[in-house]
Structure formats: structure tokens, C-alpha cells
Amino acid sequence: MKRQISRIISGIFLLALAFSFSGCTTRTKSEIPVFPPRNVTSAMDRDQMLDQLGIKLPQLPLKLQDQNAPKGAFPVSKANPEGNWTDSSRNTITRSSFGLWNNYSDKSSGFFPGPDSARVGDYTPIDLLKMKKGKVITTADEWWSKRRPEIMKDI
What we know:
This protein is of the alpha+beta class. It contains 3 helices and 4 strands; from the N terminus they run H-H-E-E-E-E-H. Helix content is 31%, strand content 6%. The chain starts with a helix and ends with a helix.
């Protein structure tokens, strides 16, 4: 059953990926410079890449007017409400170019507390190169044949 669900999800992802590239326009080499000019910013570079891929960013409301802003979040500086945001616990809160708000907290308290939270509890780091019984993995074949299935079983 899990394999069927995994295959369905993979198929949907590949289909969505194919549709996202189907709208791409082809450009001639003269339209895209070989080397970017010296004054190019990271935002300009991102915008050019999104344009080449045919991806359009949504028009977002100002952060203060965004109905999806997390409750209890506020700008760090009242003079710059579009800048960095925080909350009473001093967590950094950001909004992506697509309008998603993030607080990068894995604690069960915060914006989404309780058992329904996707961010519940403190997580113990997983040593990817050590078997459960303590044997250290030294080769790629061992990792693929022994450790990887062990991790997949836990997930």
C-alpha cells in the first residue's frame, strides 16, 4: 500500500513538473548574456531565472495587511514593516516570495502547538553512517544495502 501511495505521489510530482516546464519559452542565445554584468543583484539573477523557467511570482499584499501573517508576529522595526519580523519569544519569522510564513521552529509550542502540529518535539539528530547496533558504515554499498533500508523502515 505504501509503495502504491509513493508511486502515485511520484507520478503527480512528475506530472506537475512536466506541466511547469511546458509553458517555458525558448530564448535565443543573444537574449541571455554569457556572463552577468557586474552590477547584477541576487534578486535580478533570481528574477531572470524564474523568467527563463516561465514561473511567475504572486502579487503579495504588504506584510502588515497579509491575512496569513502568524498571530503574535510583528516587525522588528516599526519604521520598516517589510523587513524582518519576530514574535515575543524572539523567533525570526520570514515570508517567502510565494507568501508562505516560516518561523523555523521545531518546538511543539509556538504558532501551531499541540498534537496536530507538524513541528512537534525536539528531534534527535540521526547518524546516517551508523547502524542501529553501532556498526559504522564505511562503503557506499553498505549504506545502500544496509543503512538506507534501516532508515526507510524507521520513516
